[in-house]
Amino acid sequence: MKMNMRCFFKTLLYNKNVQCPDSRRFLSSKEAIERRHHLFMLEKKRQIEKVGRIEKIEVNYKGTPKECTLVMNKNISTPYDCARHMSEWHADNSALAVLDGTVYWDMHKPLTENCTLEFQNFTVAEPQQVNKAFWRSCSLVLGACVTAAFKDSVPVKLHSFPGPDIRSGSFIYDVDLPTLSDWKPTPQEMHTLSAEYVILTRKGLPIERLDVSEQLALEMFIDNEHKSSQIPSIARANGKVTLYKVDKHVDISKGPMISHTAQIGKLAITSVHKLSGSPDSDVKQLYRFQGVALPTGVILNHFAFSILIERAKKLNSARSPISPFTDREPQSIAANA
């Protein structure tokens, strides 16, 4: 036991030379969350310190109230920092940034070179990309709520969520609950989960992005065999894995995400469906958590929203990551999320 604890604390201090294969055996969900958050913050600090001498870049803003040029810090300043220079309204309502008219950029991702900058909220003329970012962010927050909802005696292993499909009627997260073979949540449990989600969104927490090495990503998710198996294929393109953090919850997604949780308005966690794998699958079953939400500021009466809730209760048709028809689906689903 002493050896295990010593290994844990060395890993917690981000000693890359320490291997701790037994971590997944004794880390509770709460401990795993704290550990990932700690490593995320250490890596973020390291990347900022690595910038060294600060260089300036010119950011040409296009939009209301008027176009202007901002002089910002290369690899440090973010679109959110630019929005704060404009007004509080821009900072609160801008969900996505668009660089040079074509590149969709997270609001909290540092700018790397001279560029033109536009902000997108949920009322833009062509909202496809911002809507996808919204749906994707809802799945991220759902994963955070599910992880925190269960007691430490119930292991919760997040598996993946697919790329956003607004037409499906629900955002989802597929979760492995290995000790609950036939769990059927009560209406009260569903209500409690929705309430936890609302509490998290009302905090207005930033959704932060960080690109890390494959090695660090594997270390951060050593307690979750599903994420660990997905990371190599995700990192295959450039050796990097994109992480997002909301509060202390850290997860994997290619992004982009919206700026902060307060941009998620009216919502409901609507249903949980059991997904079954093939007999020879390593994962015999997953639970598909589903929900529906509207962006803040989008008004819909109770009756109309109840129709959306009923639709979102139906099993989302997105491909199951443990479908018996393919053995590569989990990696491809995670890579596209």
UniProtKB/TrEMBL annotation:
One MF annotation (Gene Ontology) recorded for this entry: nucleotide binding
Sections of the chain in a coiled coil: none
GO cellular component terms attached to this protein's record: mitochondrion
Superkingdom of origin: Eukaryota
Record-given protein name: 39S ribosomal protein L39, mitochondrial
